[in-house]
Amino acid sequence: MSLNHHLRHAEAASPEAIPDQQPREPQPRGAKVHGNHPVDHDEAAARFIAAPHHEHMHDSRLWDLRQQRDAQMHGIEEWEELREHASRVKSHTLANLGDYLEQFTAAAQANGVHVHWARDAAEHNQIVHSIMSDHGARSLIKSKSMLTEECGFREYMAGVGIEVIETDLGERIQQLDDEPPSHIVVPATHKLRTDVAQVFARTLGTDPNNSEVHYLAEQQREKTRPLILQADVGMTGANFAIAENGAIAVCTNEGNADLSANVPPLHIASIGIEKIIPRVADLGVFIRLLSRSALGSPITQYTSHFRGPRPGAEMHFVMVDNGRSERLGDETFWSSLKCIRCSACMNTCPVFRRSGGLSYGATYSGPIGLILDPTMNRRKYSKLPYASTLNGSCTNVCPVKINIHEQIFEWRKVMASEHQPAVAERAMMKAAGVVLSNPRAYRAAVAGADRALRVLPQFAVDIPLNPWATPGRETPQAPRETFHEWYRRTDGGRIDTELPASGEDGSGTEEDQG
Amino acid sequence: MSAREEIMAAVRANQPAGDFPLPETVVFPMDERGNRTEFFLHNLGVMGGSELYVVDGLESAVQSAFPDAAVIASAVPELQGNRDLSTVAEQADLHDVDVAVVRAVLAVGETGSVLLADSDIVVNSLVYLAQHLVVLVDPDDIVPGLQDAYLSPEFQQHAYLAFHSGPSATADIEGVLIHGAQGVRTLQVALIPRS
Ligand code: SF4
Questions:
Q1: CA A386, CA A430: separation in Å to the nearest integer?
Q2: Which of A40, A496, B119, B163 would bridge with A303, disulfide CB 3.0–4.6 Å?
Q3: Ligand 1 pocket check: which of A79, A291, A400 to mutate, most ligand atoms within 8 Å of Cβ?
Q4: Name one GO molecular function term (chain A) (predicted).
Q5: Model confidence at A446, in pLDDT bands (50, 70, 90)?
């Protein structure tokens, strides 16, 4: 174990500790979810903002990831060409998904992998359960997988008496605290170290007054390892499924996915049917983009390729639809299936950074969540499309070039046409209100809005679904840099740097135009 | 209809129509700053790995790097070690390994990664359960970038292949970087040509 503040890999970011607060600031909890009732994002966001230490740590941590991502991008001349390639490969694959699924399945079966198909979450959970029953398996270790979150897998297994152990540190923290992940890459990023110390003290019996991060991480390592050594089944997700050779690629930092897949005699991988890419060579492009976009690191510590079971072991792939085939047919929203779950759009989003992932009350949060969640439950997530400034920053950072902010806007139109316009209006004014009532949040929103004027199609600025385009309010001329941006860029005038001359280039802090 | 038939039918019915050609793979040249090995070692350092200097043979290099190691498991002919990998019954049996020594199939300058293959590491869990990992790399096996690496035929030949880029790491708590998350605590590369 070592700590090096200068390294830029794994998920490392803001290394300075926020001093422990006395009395401890309680962790704000997520949105209150009541069945199908529309989730009230702004109510939960207001509570997150009302916890300044949490809000500040969360905001600066994710902004740091965003800035590291920019640094990586600037180091690669062909960045835009890589994005274009990735986007086109994904569009092509989705347009020919039937053939590629057939090719992938045939190759996987030829490699000795058992392939299963699940129409929905329930079927996925039953399949895994029945594989386990067939083998008399009782315990399962798993690495992080948003798909299994989507399927409510842990809850299901708890119901049938099978213990599921999360092996990723952040995901384990969330499991022990009985909370879902708040972020698709760093699941416990909304928690302060003191919150983690409390959770571990309660559940693992660690010292509640020791919130030293090394101590906490080491405790989890030591407590999890025996569970890994004894597990009957290991489960992973898949970042990519390669049609050409029937392999899956899994990208992680902690080594836990490889332990989960390699130590038990049975490996089960849950794979969304949209994860397919045609060729091994395409991985060269996607792997170059993924971790750089996500965490600003050149690559994850581990990029593993599972093509078949090792001698004496078994490998099972569960191909999951759960609404994907239906979304594929949606003219406006199908391209959201290109998402490679890098989280760049979340890290850059001023609303996400200041409201925390749990305030969305959904499996997927942040900009990508706003366009995925309503496809799963339109009523429950009807207010989410308003949790955005439409500043376009998400679209600019997306490595597969999904037009995220335009799709969010399209969802507002859908919601407005299906609901009382008064409700829609109230929701959007409230969402804007929460962000604007907080000074730091307001500054970011202003910065976002200014730039949005340069990137948004004019219709999005004009029509009354945009909270900044109320009747009688002129669209202001966007200044190239706000005072606060200037202050941050120059450290209050101490650093004498020129703002890039190009009018397209935005400010010194958000160089994501184009 | 079976789940598979139903999903496939829905997929085929809903696939977006239109012209979406598959782009050719373009391998972009990598600026290696004049020295591929240095480029690799630099990026290995960025990812938290380091070089194991071998002056007096591998055996003494490993011994002086890990003087307290009780169990050394070697999958390479260059080092004997004291755990026979050919007789390991269960993957979990390697939980007590202090130092694992393996050889990389290839290495990647761009990211400082080493590519480990099932046939070379003998027992897959070895390179995760060990506390420390030493990887032998032949400088001639270093390729410039990830895109070059993915053109290797190895990807069609192995059931299991993994890029390791530095040691296991996490920053899940407040972004503080920790080496030795669930896998190895350190990763060192020894530049030793294949014999
Ligand atoms: S929508 Fe784009 S930026 Fe957001 S998680 Fe998906 S791939 Fe990443």
A1: 9
A2: B163
A3: A400
A4: metal ion binding
A5: very low
Q: Is A111 exposed, middle or buried (0-12, 13-18, 19+ CB in 10 A)?
A: middle
CATH superfamily of A41-329: NagB/RpiA/CoA transferase-like (3.40.50.10420)
pLDDT tens by residue, B12-59? 999 999 999 999 999 999 999 999 999 999 999 999 999 999 999 999
Q: Is A210 exposed, middle or buried (0-12, 13-18, 19+ CB in 10 A)?
A: middle
Q: B169 and A229 in contact by Cβ < 8 A? A: no
- Beta-carbon separation of A9 and B165 below 8 A: yes
First-residue to last-residue Cα distance in chain A? 40
Q: Output the pLDDT for position A356.
A: 95
In this prediction, residue A487 has a pLDDT band, given cuts at 50, 70 and 90, of very low
A83, A398, A406: which to mutate for ligand 1, most atoms within 8 A of CB? A398
Query: Could you list the residue range(s) of the whole structural domain that residue B88 is in?
Result: 3-191
Are A328 and B15 inside 8 Å of each other by CB? yes
Hey, where are the domains in chain A?
Answer: 41-329, 342-418, 423-492
Closest residue on chain B to A11 (Cα): B171
The amino acid that residue A8 corresponds to is R
Q: What percent of chain A has a predicted confidence (pLDDT) above 90?
A: 74
Q: Quick one: pLDDT band at residue A187, thresholds 50, 70, 90?
A: very high
Instruction: Please work out whether the CB of residue A128 comes within 6 Å of at least one atom of ligand 1.
Output: no
Model confidence pLDDT, tens digit, residues A309-341: 999 999 999 999 999 999 999 999 999 999 999
Contact at CB, B8 and A101, closer than 8 angstroms: yes
Instruction: Please report, for the domain that includes residue B28, its CATH number.
Output: 3.40.50.10420
Return the minimum-mean-pLDDT range out of A328-332, A421-425, A478-482.
A478-482
Distance A293 CA to ligand 1 centre (A): 9
Atom of ligand 1 nearest to the CA of A343: 5
Residue A393: both structure tokens together: 């920053």
Structure tokens at A280: 């091994």
